[in-house]
Amino acid sequence: MAIETELKLRVANQLDTDSWLQPLLGGAQARHLKNTYFDTPEGLLAKWRMGLRIREVDGKREQTLKLAGNSGSALSARPEYNLPIDSNKPRLSAFPDEVWPAGTDVHELEEALVAVFSTDFDRQKTLVAGEQVEFCWDQGEVSANSHCLPIRELELEMQGEDLAALFRFAEGLLRDGVQCFGLSKAARGNWLANGQGNLPLDEPMADVQRQMSNEEVLAQGLGTAISQWQQAEDVFLLHPGWQPLLALADALQYFRQVLSLFGGLVPRKASSELRQECQWLADQLAQAQAQVRVAKVLSAKGSSFRKLNISDELLEQANERQQALPNLSFFTQLFASERANRLKLAALKFVALRQWRSKLDDAAIAELEKPIKWFADTHLAKSFADLKRHLVRGMALPQYLDQEGRVLRYLTCCRTFGALYPDQFSEHSVEQWQDFMFGLEEARRLEGIGQLAARLDLSDDDAEQLENWLNRKRQSLVVAMDQSRQLGLNQQVFWP
Q1: Is 28 helix (H, G, I), strand (E, B) or coil?
Q2: Do 78 and 58 contact (CB within 8 A), yes or no?
Q3: How far apart are alpha carbons 275 and 272 in whole angstroms?
Q4: Hey, which bits of 20-131 come out as E strands?
Q5: From first to last of its 496 residues, what are the pLDDT tens digits of the chain?
Q6: Which of 157, 213, 249, 460 has the smallest CB count inside 10 Å?
């Protein structure tokens, strides 16, 4: 068994790779790799987060089994087994018994295997960065069910122990059109084989355990955010739309909230440049959030919105606002830009190399190495007490909007530390506060309608009608949010 640690970079079609990559590859000869991936008809291996293939190179075959790892971001690490084979169908008995879930009938599983998709590509590879990194340039396609996707990607796979060398080399590759990429060839093949349906947009909790240190949980929380960030970007690449952009904005927000949560242990100077670039990307994604709010206004044609005398004028203003905001093509270019990918690579590097340590003294590092439980209990209790103190009965909508940061901090604590309390924490523990956050988003939509109306020269009657309508909507929203507030504050806490 080996642990495959690699970084994937997607290369745009318009880039001139001959003048750029060939000097780095040093004349490495291209070899053709034909790969066939196998699974059961119901996708059992995919459910187990396993990948099984037979690769043929120069007439020789090798079967590979990749196990679940920490893949999800552009930088992934997965255990894998590589064994020679002379057949065109896998022999599962050759792999160690312990790789399979308990109770697996390996012979029955092998009999059920079918070819699901294939990848055909030419690969040039060489060793770089003092032979610490294998550098590959792959060109070809992944195909399934008469559909195919192009392969134009760089893979940097660790061969030595110096992970910093991988990042240094990767930083030299970045330019407009080179994009950090999370979806493996196998993931893309499965997507094609399964009918190119919608990919999930998860909001995973940090996978933490009580024996972990403060530092390990910090790294786990940031890593969870980066995985969600990359997943959303990958979904957008395959299926451009506004929902992946909202998911990406949420992931970026969680990343920044985790940095803030651990700010007492890791000073701001340790992440100042990273946080500055995160703010830049958040400002770009705020325009996607504005697009979604405007789209909701435009979709309100059949609702009570149409009862307003000025509904047509408001819709016209909304159309103009929508045209002025960036479209999906803008975000496609943004995610392929050098700046966006330098940010993502910097975030990966910050976590993988634990770069915060260089800014800390021995006493601060000792605090980071303490068990997480006390830190988690303290911050959960503190953030919840903060909600009780500031979210009081009788608040108006603007006052609720002012409390967003406190609710976000509590939700960040729950998402980061919730797994430490497996017998007490559940999705029900936070659903009221998630409803509260949804109410804040609706409040912003109402604010947006008011801003659109402010551009119009309204008569006194029309202005009064609009204000009455907005006030009814605001009051209804306040009632719902107050109910969420009361339910959330009255819940029994799940930490000691």
Answers
A1: coil
A2: no
A3: 5
A4: 31-39, 51-57, 60-66, 75-85, 114-128
A5: 667 789 999 999 999 898 899 899 988 999 999 999 999 999 999 889 899 999 999 889 999 999 876 656 677 777 889 999 999 999 999 999 999 999 999 999 999 999 999 999 999 999 999 999 999 999 999 999 889 999 999 999 999 999 999 999 999 999 999 999 998 898 899 899 988 888 888 888 999 999 999 999 999 999 999 999 999 999 999 999 999 999 999 999 999 999 999 999 998 999 999 999 999 999 999 999 999 999 988 886 546 677 889 998 999 999 999 999 999 999 999 999 999 999 999 999 999 999 999 999 999 999 999 999 999 999 999 999 999 999 998 899 999 999 999 999 999 999 999 999 999 998 889 999 999 999 999 999 999 999 999 999 999 999 999 999 999 999 999 999 999 999 999 999 999 8
A6: 460
Pairwise CA distance, residues 228 & 223, whole Å: 9
Look at the alpha carbons of 85, 86, 90, 92 in this order and tell me if their dihedral is positive or negative.
negative
| Overall residue count recorded for the chain in this entry | 496
The b/e string for 361-393 (b: 16+ C-beta within 10 A; e otherwise) is eeebeeebeeebbebbbebbeebbebbeeebee
Cα angle 413, 416, 418; round to 5 = 85
Which tokens go with 217? 């949980």
Question: Would you tell me how many other CB atoms lie within 10 Å of the CB of residue 452?
Answer: 20
Task: Evaluate if pTM is beyond 0.70.
Answer: yes
How many CA within 13 A on the CB side of residue 209? 2
